[in-house]
């Protein structure tokens, strides 16, 4: 009788200034998964941390044989850090989660049970507004999901998180995607497959504060929407056509006023009209310019991230744990 081979789980965790959370998170994940019959590895991706996060990762990788780290050369952003970890994961299933303990590790067991029942992707979304978030974070999050659902063909539940499970076949497809600015929440939804969303309530951060300010969150939201959808271009085209039609309808009024001698002279209305349409034109050009800029950056074919160091080794062009 051939003994059954244990399935392997790869857990990818991006980190940025999380030095006080690393050891605690590893302990919590071990406590959850040691009671299962899976092999598992933890792949931490240090996204240009400015504190002692990298040293903590190196120290814990020496304590635990299944803990690996990837050090990026600078801060490339969370999605690229996730992509770096996912690209090196070798598990039958890959789970991504944050390092701040707001994603409850005990939910991993629930996600795995759905995976064993033939679901290819199990993602999570906040059941209610994050009780631990600041007011501007809640407002920005709400604006983001309304915007992405209105301006793209995919629909994301409000509060969709980066706490998700993906089968190996989904991960293999993600590894082939090479976009300059990648929006993983949208891309994973776009891939299709058999998906299930499950609600969760975020826990309080173990230590530290969220690093995103209001303007950073707003910038991230706008960038994600424009990265994943071309619908803003269609919207501004519609606005342009609408005002062009209104301008054409205005011509008969001007001609009749001139013939009847009722034309009203004045500069206020002219200045207001010029200012309005000038601002509209700048808005349209700005949106078009953003898309052209993205095409330009994509055409450079630069890598999405640069790895400075890792305790993974390269064998036959594949990275494996050592």
TrEMBL record:
One annotated GO molecular function: glycosyltransferase activity
E.C. designation(s): 2.4.-.-
Keyword ATP-binding among record annotations: no
SUPFAM superfamilies to which the protein is assigned, alphabetical: Nucleotide-diphospho-sugar transferases (SSF53448)
Domain Glycosyltransferase 2-like, chain residue ranges per copy: 10-173
InterPro entries, alphabetized: Glyco_trans_2-like (IPR001173), Glycosyltransferase_2 (IPR050256), Nucleotide-diphossugar_trans (IPR029044)
Name of the protein: Glycosyltransferase family 2 protein
Organism whose genome encodes this protein: Mucilaginibacter lutimaris
């Amino acid at each position: 009788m051939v003994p059954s081979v244990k399935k392997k789980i790869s857990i990818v965790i991006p980190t940025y200034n999380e030095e006080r959370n690393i050891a605690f998170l590893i302990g919590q994940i071990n406590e959850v998964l040691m009671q299962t019959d899976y092999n598992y590895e933890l792949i931490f991706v240090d996204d240009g941390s400015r504190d002692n996060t990298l040293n903590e990762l190196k120290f814990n990788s020496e304590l635990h044989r299944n803990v690996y780290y990837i050090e990026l050369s600078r801060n490339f952003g969370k999605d690229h850090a996730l992509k770096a970890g996912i690209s090196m994961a070798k598990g039958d299933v890959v789970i991504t989660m944050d390092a701040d303990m707001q994603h409850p590790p005990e939910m991993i067991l629930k996600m795995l049970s759905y995976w064993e029942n033939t679901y290819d992707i199990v993602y999570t979304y906040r059941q209610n507004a994050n009780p631990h978030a600041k007011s501007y974070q809640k407002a920005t999050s709400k604006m983001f999901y309304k915007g992405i659902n209105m301006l793209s063909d995919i629909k994301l539940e409000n509060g969709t998180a980066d706490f998700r499970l993906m089968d190996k076949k989904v991960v293999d497809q993600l590894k082939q995607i090479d976009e300059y600015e990648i929006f993983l929440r949208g891309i994973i939804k776009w891939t299709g497959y058999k998906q299930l969303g499950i609600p969760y309530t975020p826990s309080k951060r173990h230590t530290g504060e969220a690093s995103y300010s209001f303007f950073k969150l707003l910038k991230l939201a706008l960038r994600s929407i424009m990265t994943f959808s071309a619908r803003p271009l269609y919207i501004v085209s519609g606005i342009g056509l609408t005002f062009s039609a209104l301008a054409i309808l205005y011509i008969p009024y001007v001609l009749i006023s001139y013939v009847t001698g009722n034309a009203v002279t004045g500069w206020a209305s002219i200045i207001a009209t010029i200012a309005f349409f000038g601002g509209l034109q700048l808005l349209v050009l700005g949106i078009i310019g953003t898309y052209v800029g993205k095409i330009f950056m994509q055409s450079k074919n630069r890598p999405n991230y640069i790895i400075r160091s890792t305790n993974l080794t390269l064998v036959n062009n594949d990275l494996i744990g050592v």
